[in-house]
Design brief:
Layout lengths: L6 H17 L4 H18 L5 H12 L2 H15 L7
Length: 86
């Protein structure tokens, strides 16, 4: 089973990556920019695997660049307290 198949596993995966980035000294602005790039990649290359990802993909597809960055920033906030490596 892929980490993309389950919403909670996906949030934990993203939370782990976020915690690693912070541990390595990455600042919040850079994290948010990378989150936007990840969103672009996922929207173009990965088929949503669950209802939550489908909603995000649909929102991403109708959002302009500024709105997409806002979605990415909110996802960072959502997962900041998730992860297995806290």
């Amino acid at each position: 089973m892929s980490v993309l198949d389950n919403w909670d596993q996906w949030k934990n995966f993203l939370g782990d990556r976020l915690n690693q980035a912070k541990t390595q000294g990455m600042n919040q602005e850079t994290i948010n920019q990378l989150a936007g790039q990840v969103g672009d990649y996922l929207a173009g290359q990965v088929d949503p695997k669950n209802e939550q990802q489908r909603v995000l993909a649909d929102l991403w597809s109708v959002a302009d660049e500024k709105e997409q960055q806002a979605i990415a920033n909110v996802m960072v906030k959502l997962v900041q307290n998730n992860g297995t490596q806290q």
